[in-house]
Amino acid sequence: MRQLIKNGRVIDPANRLDKICDILIEGDTIVKIGDNLSGEDAAVIDAAEKIVVPGFIDMHVHLREPGQEAKEDFASGSRAAAAGGYTTVAAMPNTSPVVDNAALVRSLQKRAADVSLVHIEIIGALTKGQCGEELAELGDMVEAGAVAFSDDGHYVERAKVLLSGLDYLRAFDKIIINHDEDTSLIEEGCMNEGRRSAMLGVKGRPTVAEDIAVDRDIRLAEYADARVHVAHISSARAVEIVRQAKKRGVRVSAEVTPHHLTLTEDCVDLSDSATKVNPPLRRQSDLDAMLEGLKDGTIDAIVTDHSPHAEEEKDVEYCLAPSGFPGLETAVGVLLTELYHSGKLDLDTLISKLTAEPARLLGLDAGTLAVGSRADIVILDPEREWTVDERAFYTRGTHSPFVGRRLKGRAVLTMVGGKVVMRDGKIIE
């Protein structure tokens, strides 16, 4: 099958391309990019006044499979991804059982191939059972196809264990993705420690817990000359620690979420657990630091930390509710509205943090519109206005702090391997 995307503004940061042109696709492959292309018998997709970009890559999602399918599974999560413009997602291993062996990696790859509309990559656990005591089967999981390793949701408290993991994975050039909050400092905290938590009478999670953990992990990576990745960074001081480490040549990278770029602790309402996340929503000064970190390259990627929960789990007292909310279907709209249309971040940088950079970090053959590459493509309408409605979600999670928000800009077509799987917000099976 031949398809021709015409008249769109094509932005491909990996190849420094930003111009109005056409893209010719044969089967699952991009075969030509240029002006005024013609394709005999090709199905034409008119992208006039729209933006054509590589399919978005989310290197941090929780798809809850295996064992927690009431929250989400590969089928529902992949549809949520496609609806949001994501063509590749990397699933975290904090499932039941934990993904800490090669057999599970292979099983999940097979499951993804059977039911997913998008590419699902598997992240393996760093330690057995994510208990932080003994390294998991890292080499076997690399061989099976795991793209990275993480005990996400858990801080690796024992420095010796993390150092051993860094030493081992250096030979494979794989990153360890760390949830960096010192557990001794956060205890039962359920929001940012500060003025707002004191006013609400809620125990907080201080930024210093993140700062200490980030600094420790970077120093271990520097000692081992290995790669370490800071998950969902949220503290201004932590951003500065990463910035200085990069200047020293440390092999550190970092990611940030849309909610840590756009929501502050002032959004916390104890009657609505949608805003409960780890790490918590911070102060405006922290948000400002996140933005500067994106601009100067300190922060490499934007991720959703998509974390759906069953409705009955979130409909409880704020501090008793699990942390996290779904983000795949709202992320692009939030980012375009709050960062691009506000003039805070240019479009090329934004697209790069969603495509080329996460592909580079995970070593994926994706995130580009180069001739010969797989036709994972998204068309954006930057002017499309819409209201976030949880009843239209494809994810099983409904609790989102963005529900009811009026946004400007969204993905209107998602193509995975040359197949259109979403058009105008509707999934095409």
Chain-averaged pLDDT: 97
Count of helical segments? 14
CATH homology-level superfamily of the largest domain:
Metal-dependent hydrolases
Largest sheet: 9 strands, mixed
**Residue share in helix:** 25-40%
Low-confidence parts, pLDDT < 50 over ≥5 residues? none
- Total number of distinct structural domains: 2
CATH class of the largest domain, please? Alpha Beta
Class based on secondary structure composition and strand pairing: alpha/beta
CATH architecture of the largest domain: Alpha-Beta Barrel
> Might you state the CATH topology name of the largest domain?
TIM Barrel
Integer-rounded radius of gyration: 21 Å
Termini separation: 17 Å
Q: Give the overall silhouette.
A: globular
Strand content: 15-25%
Q: Let me know the number of strands.
A: 19
Q: Any overview of this molecule?
A:
The chain has about 425 residues and is of the alpha/beta class. The chain has two domains: about 1-50 and about 375-425, Urease, subunit C, domain 1, CATH 2.30.40.10; about 55-360, TIM Barrel (Alpha-Beta Barrel), CATH 3.20.20. It contains 14 helices and 19 strands. The strands form three sheets. Strands 1, 2, 3, 4, 5, 16, 17, 18 and 19 form a nine-stranded mixed sheet that branches. Strands 6-7-8-9-10-13-14-15 form an eight-stranded parallel sheet. Strands 11-12 form a two-stranded parallel sheet. The radius of gyration is 21 Å and the shape is globular. About 55% of the residues are buried. The mean pLDDT is about 95.
Short description:
This protein is α/β, with parallel strands linked by helices and 429 residues long.
